## 1
Amino acid sequence: MRDVQNDLDFRKIEINKVGVKNLKYPIVLQDKENDEQHTIALINMYVNLPHHFRGTHMSRFIEILNKYRREIDIHNMGEIMKEMKTNLEAEAAHLEIEFPYFIEKQAPVSGAKSLMEYQCKFTGMLNDKMKILLGVSIPILTVCPCSKEISEHGAHNQRGTINVQLQFKGFIWIEDIIQMVENCASGSVFSLLKREDEKFVTEKSYENPKFVEDVVRDVATKLNVQENILWYKVEVESFESIHNHDAYACVEKRC
């Protein structure tokens, strides 16, 4: 049977990334409190394609993934990418694993417990060197310092997001990054709050007003003293409640 994908291509254009995208797959992660956490990931797998090949073998991506079913985590991402390079005769491999991660969070006054969702992502790149990044998106509260200063009553406040990308050595807990980062905002977001908790969160945030510039600098300051963090990119976005735009700030550490 003829393999059309192996036909020669004469356009002389190399493809940077080709593969499979948006594949839902069960994975198991290390959980700081409960040892393991099962979740569903959205997985993208790519390799480069030399200019002389017409196509790649899409089924091989799925075969490799199924070999590691229910055992996919950051520890074997390198091994998976090496197999992608070998089996697909490629010079570079890319693996992206995006997933919801749940942490039990306790309300500050009532002590009510609930699960809070955080979107996380592992991004792996392998050519002559290997690089693996951790991405975490943390929902936060911001209170505008300018609004508080000029207003007799209250200040505009809103939800926002801190997006962190990290390159690190050794091992790092997702839970530790989340706790470190969300404490840099005016306040935290909870999935369950009783009336007394709402009062506490609102008043505490009001007493801790921050611009997005303040938040991104505070996060960078904390990351700068972490010896196992080699590189980071921090983005803060505030979904402004009284403006027809969002506020944004970004800091990136040079390698």
## 2
Amino acid sequence: MQKHALIAAGGKGTRMKSPLPKQFVELDGKPVLLHSLDAFFQYDPTLHITVVLSRELHNQWKSICLEHDCQIDHQLVDGGPTRFHSVKNGLKHIPNDSLVAIHDAVRPLISEKLIGRLYDFAQKFGSAIPVIESPDSLRMVDHALSSPLPRQQVRLVQTPQCFHASLLKRAYNTGYKERFTDDASVLEEMGERLYLIEGEKENLKITTMTDLFAAEGILNAGKQQTETL
């Protein structure tokens, strides 16, 4: 099956407290979105990549690509009012008989190895959702009351989430609901089983400056390890 990547980059990034949208903030001298784009390109230079971005940011992104001499071929698609609507717009440009990985632009440290495992698993089972164990204790909060959650039974969900495109497009042929926080939740609404695989701790989501500093630390540690080798 032909492989496609759909990178959701429609967020405003208000929690970053930055004049730039968070997907354009620089990480190690390169915009976060460009890191994500490059990760898929390094996995497979022939991969079909679609970037879903708010219409008002298209020209800014094109200028950024020129500034950084981005040679990665990709298609730009208009984003929507929510992530759900943005992905739905992007899926219109994905062939039914393909595999599609939906990735949040602000997870720039995704590895080629994980991308490959996700495509391989989704090819066999229809979906592949990367998850990791929580390092912290968890509690369920109900107003003023709370109760512990068994950590071994809970997983933190990441992207990219990979699917047979025809399956995911059928799932997105529905109306928006607030509980649709990712693509897995949309597919689950249709009654489909989700298949989980082990994600990566380094595949963090950048929503605050603290996350950005953590990502820089991971990159610097990787560089030091390479120099030592």
## 3
Amino acid sequence: MPDTAEWWEGYFDERFIALYRDFLTPERTAREVGGLLEMLMLPPGAEVLDLACGWGRHSIALAREGFKVTGQDLSETLLARARKRAEKAEVAVDFVRGDMRQVPWTGRFDAVLSMFSSLGYFLSDDEDLKVLRAAHDALKPDGLFVMETMHRDHVVAAFADRDWWDAGDGSTVWVEREFDAVEGVSREWTRWRRGDATGEKYHELRIRSATEWDVLLRRAGMVPVEWYGDWELAPFIHSSEDLIVVCRRAE
């Protein structure tokens, strides 16, 4: 077992982009942003925080829709990519570097987003509560928080301990997984080969049920108001591939 206390600090690099770019297509982003627009119904010019924004997929698309967007992420590699993409798209997004447990704004945003299962990195309820409370405090009174994540029912039902694919950059990628049913932690080893070059990445995530998320969100001062199972806004059920919850900040 590798030392994974801070696996996320070096994980999100150029190789991460190469591995995931084929899955995170412009079409997927457009579908997700369309769902967000319908869920949130925000007025033009509303302020949005994209927490753990990555290379700015949602931030840039939302800025195109007329929102004032801030993107926060720990990875300077992903932020540099995001800034270049925003410049190319000719939109203004304020991309800032920071740990998502420490959001440096209070009462500023109409909406805060947590997309692509970016909660769960820290494995413990206490650490994820820090993220949720930071998001809560960054919201205006009655502001909205949206979280998209994997959920335990689907992960367990669709669990595959091995997988592989050919990536768009010519690499062949192999994945091995294990799921700790007591801790609720998914562990994943990703290995790749491109010609003579090889590499490996490891990550682990705390995977919660909707019931567990409901408890944690309420402890953070968030009141869930809608639960969806996909970006077409189908109701969330145990077999849904995604868990998308819209919460309102409670005082």
## 4
Amino acid sequence: MKIALVLALGYGLVVALMYYAQRGLLYPGASLAGAAPRTAPWGKSARIRTEDGEILYALHARASVGAPTVLYFHGNADRVTNYAFLAEGLAARGIGLLAVSYRGFTGSSGSPTEAGLLLDGLAAYDWLASNTSGPIIALGQSLGSAVAIHLGRERPELDGLILVSAFDSIVGLASGIYFFLPVRPFLKDTFRADRWIADVGQPKLFVHGERDAVVPIRHGRNIFELAPEPRQMRLFESRGHNDIWTDELMDDVAAFIRALPGRD
């Protein structure tokens, strides 16, 4: 009985610790964020105000008049300052880029929550829509894929979505990792992309590395199967989660954008 009691108390302590630490685990990039750099590492710095009063730091490589712009939502441990390569690769293909830093991440005010990040996505789109004349394509990577999917549902005028290393829900991901914990009733931020995707009617390109150990390919396949047409999927057999970007993928992104309705 004593051993059982000790085990039960130990398990309860682990559950309690994980419950209170969950946002730190889900948004590790926020704890390492730091202030915005004094000079923009690429593009130009922008400040975007959200509906609930937060100020987001963003970097903007402006497209030429009428040309498309990619609205980029990064992963949970990343920062917008890392995306000079994406800005340069897209610019070489005639495409602009706006990369937004979520609340609590590099240079942005506030603290990250699911509700907050979804508001950040809407604010970034609305700002970009008022500052560009060309098509806007949301590109969400990892955690950012859920932000992009929610944006597609809430802003049907968005021209298209590119979803890199996308997942069906944080519930599904966390249940696989923390199978020994009561994940479902205790998660604060669930990012149920699987419930939003049915309302996303824009053209969608899904991209996934078959060796992805962070977001296993089964989650990418699941959200793809739930998505309505038009949709397409591009798999990279030898790629994982953090090495997905190649010149080949950049070409695929540009080709998808050029093929959007209304594009040449």
